[in-house]
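Wed. Picked up where I left off yesterday with Alkane 1-monooxygenase. The coffee machine is broken again, so keeping this brief.
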Amino acid sequence: MIPASQVARLKSALPFWLSLSLVPLIALAATQGGWALILPPLGTWWLYSFLDAVLGLNEENADTETGEDQLFWYRLITLIWFPVQAGVIYGTIWYATHTGHLATWEKIVLFFDVGILSGTVGIVYAHELLHQRNRLERWLGDLLLATVLYSHFRTEHLLVHHVHVGTPRDAVTARYNEGFHRFFFRVLFECPGSAWRAEKAMLARRGRPVWDRANPFWRYAALQAAALALAVAVGGLAGLGLFLVQAISAIWQLELTNYVEHYGLTRKYLGDGKYERVMPRHSWNASHKASNWLLINLQRHSDHHYKPSRRFPLLQTYDAEEAPQLPLGYPVMTIAAMVPPLWRRIMNPKVRAWRRQHYPEIEDWTPYKTGAHPMPA
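Structure written out below (tokens, as returned):
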């Protein structure tokens, strides 16, 4: 176990700050165009996949009793990310709409690159912030989600996904044999309505109507409208179009990650609308060192669901007896997910092995595969 005194050192936190290297890569892509447009994906997905192959796994766990005051350098990178991301998005919109050296296709690819920053990094940081009790952190999470037009993710993730993961109620638990592309359009359709119903039910329990100002959907709408209006103010209709390119790119990356995190993993149905409690075995775990730097330990997803309020530096990793293991980090696994036959060839045997290991008593998996069990009570 890594002692708290070592966890607290700036040196220990610095690898998680490597995400800032995306900013100059996007600046180069914008100013140079052409060949330079490949730099952001090379500097994230491919670089960290290569580093994973070289550096291997990190199976050490930090002392979970490490205090909040000892996590300053870890928290700081998430706290400063919104101004960084907003500056990159709107600064690049202004530059792309006021320069003549970029062709239309180059601008589209450039804003796909910006979507790597707001999706691979920004949404992951928003996810960390939204799980905290601090009001400032939650607001920063909301602001980050507004810049990718996915504000309902906060409600869906906290009130639905974490409560009902591995059950038919959770749209983002990818079903066995469900290809990513089908999953993607399904969750785009299902999740906003699911989030709205969750907030409506919460308000009803407090005796308030759905149109009450406590409903966060009004805040979500206002923040997203402001994000769109600023894009128009900075770059006109062209700026709006480019903003939408980065938002769609970011959402695609988020849902790729959601797909990988829980594919085929279901909680046992106990009858009467009840399911077993969430355990580390209900999320895919990955201990790959470099990609966990990029994704602030999101790949230690088994522990995140087991202890959702635990800050990212303290997330624990598990061995194969406790949690199912991905063969590679998210950057490679999400690419595999884009090719359903390849994905099924890699992951379906692992899901079947997981079933035999943890649920040998279940003989018929059809209701789990089809989501035919009753909704949680």
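Quick read: The mean pLDDT is 96.
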